[in-house]
Amino acid sequence: MPQEQDQNFSSSADFLETFKQLQEGEKTAEKLETMLDKLEGKLEELLSQADAVSQNPSEKSTGPKPKSRDGA
């Protein structure tokens, strides 16, 4: 009987360790999902900006022209 108890304890400890690892994996997966969602949002923003620029190439620079140094 003591061997059965040792095996049960060992398998319970293994189960607990596996469960802890699974929880850590789930947390890591959630963090990665959040990071990927942020990256996807940034990529969509960049793509929409690039699309807007390609549709209106004449509006690349709407700021004032720089003045020359000699005052002319």
Automatic annotation (TrEMBL):
Annotated protein name in UniProt: LAQU0S04e04412g1_1
Region (Disordered): 47-72
Top-level lineage group: Eukaryota
Biased composition range(s): Polar residues: 51-61
